[in-house]
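Entry:
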Amino acid sequence: MSAILVRFLRQRLFFLMLMLTLTLMSPHVIYAADEKKAADVSATSLATLLGASLEYDPLTRIGTFTKNGQSARFGADIPYVLLDWNIVKSVPAPYEGQETVLVKKEFADTLKDFYAPKTNLSTKYSVKAIVIDPGHGGKDPGAIGEFEGFKLQEKDVNLAIAHRLTDLLRIRYPERTILLTRTGDTYPSLEDRVDMANNIKLGATDAVIYISIHSNASFNKNTRGYEVWYLNPNYRRTVVDEKTAEEKGHDIAPIINTMLEEEFTTESVILAQKVYQRLGTMIGDKSPERGIRAEEWFVVRNAKMPSILIEVGFVTNKEEAQLLTQSPYLRRIADAIYNGVCDFIEHFEQ
C-alpha cells in the first residue's frame, strides 16, 4: 500500500472517529443543496480575511488554517473543526464547490473568534527544548571499523558530533534547553535516553525535538553514505499522557492521540528533510546520499515528540572511516545537522 494511500486512510479514519465520538455532543446539521447560497465564502477568501495561511489536500479533503502558530483543521462534509489540536467545535460542514472549498458564516465566525487577539495570552508554538542523543557509549562501542593502521568506534564519532552540535545550538539559542543524553564515554540505557526527553516539563505551547546520532556498519565493505530515519507512520503508540486523558475525557483522548501521532510524524518527516538537505550540502561531495527512511528504532518510537535518527556514515568502509576520524569532517557533519535543526525551528515557529 502506498504511503499516500496510507496517509489518506489514516486521516479519513481519524475524522470518522471524530464524527462518531462527537455525534451525541452536538447536533449534526445537514444542509440541502439549495441552502448552499452565494453568501457562503470560499476558504481561500476566509484565509485572506483572517491573515492566515491555508493548506487543502483535495485527495484527503482535509485542510488547515494556520496563523501565529495556531491551527484550525477541518474536513469537507465534516461538521467539526479542530482548534490547536485539542479543542473541538461543532460547525456547519465545509463543502467543495466547483472550484474551491466553501464555508458558511457560522464556520467563518468560529475562526474569527478563534484568531481574535487575546489579551496577555500568547499561543505561538515554539521549540523550547532539543535533546541530542549520541548513540551507544561506555560498554557499548556500537559499530566498529578495524583497518590496517587504525580502529574506529561508533560511540566516539557520535559523541564528537553531538558535542559540536550542542555547542552551536547553545550559542544560537541561549534561552532554550539543549540536553545531551550522555556527555562522556558512559552508557545510559535506551529507556534512560527517551525518559530524559519525555520528562521535560513544557508549557502548553512548548515543544521538544529529539535527535539521535549514529554511525552505520555493513558486511559489504564497499557500502557508504549517510541517511536519516523517522518513525514508521504505521506504528501505533500512545503519546497522550494519563493526565491529559483525564482532563479531556477517555472518549476524546484516543482522538487527540491520533492527531498527535499524525502531527509528530509530519514534523519528524520535515525535520528529517531539513537535516538531510543540509547534509547533502555539507558532505555530499564526500559521502553519497542513501535517502530518508522509516523504521521503528527504539528511541524514535518511544520519544513522544518529533524525532529522527541520523546515520552519518559507515565505519566499516575504509574511505569513509578515514573521513570520520578527521575533526574538520566531523565539524562539517555537526554544522549540517545544526543548520537543519535551525531550518526546522524556523519552519515550525512560523
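The two ends are 33 Å apart (CA to CA).
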